[in-house]
Please model this.
Amino acid sequence: MSLLLQDRSYRDIEAIAGCSHRTVAKAKKVCHEHGLTATSQVEALSVEEIDVLFADGRKTPSKEFVAFDVAAAVKKRTGKKKLPLRVLWANYLDTDGTPGQRHYSYQRFCQIIGEYVEVNELTMRITHVPGHTMQVDWAGTKMAIFDPVTGTKTTVSVFVASLPYSGMVFACGCLDEKMPNWLDAHLRAFEYFGGAAQVIVPDNASTASNQIARGDRAREVNREYRDFLEYHQTAAVPTRPVRPTDKGNVEAGVKVVTNWVIGRLADRRFASLDDANDAIAAEVEAINDRTPFRGQKTSRRELFTEHEQSELFDLPEARWQPVIWKKSKVNRDYHVEIATV
Model:
């Protein structure tokens, strides 16, 4: 709303705030209906007043847990003297609630802040918090590998991960978009960045989330995916259906990878997935080291190293490994059948 009152164009606001044309139009309508004509009026609005103006569909905080001021916590994560999330959580634990109330766990505390950041497209101050979010998606354009003997073509899907604050990207090729490759690609991204972001924002493909009920657009995170993320002390916040701007940065990251990785490698013929991934990795390195970036004499990697890397969660000492659970019936000879040949 402040940008609208500064006579910025829709296109400028969409680029600055990473929001959709529809969102800008909605903000303009609210300004008109409520007589907001100066930026000082917008800045004077409280979080509660903004919630009334913009119904964002968030649930009322559970009375079972001690509530906290999410907007205030997010504000403390911006500017030069931003506080780490663990410090904010420790301060939250010192607050008292009513008898019988519990405090949120650290993971849930981070998830609530993440949901607030992703849902609210109104202020650019909370859009990019160092180390807070990793956005992930599959690129729409595929690659291919060819058997050197038969010439058979195999399609390769390209996974893209992006850190909104620094713009750092990661990409790798997978033979399909099923859960094992989805999780493995996440793990490789974590290892490439040297840690896990506090919140992961995936797309709404069945790989990441399930439909809660038939006809209901809302989705919940898959159990296998949730367990994987919990192992790495992070959590997923699926994007809202029909809201691609919830993942504005990864859409930009996918576009960069499509143009500067998939596009540049389109004329090369790869004999194996390893060969393709070696080439993808080289192009990704070039993207992250390229200058200038965002109009400054710096690169994605320099921004990442200076401001974001230290904010990521350390990875567990034991590397995550996929597990397949199988229910078996004990036979009369006390043996259990695992598989048949």
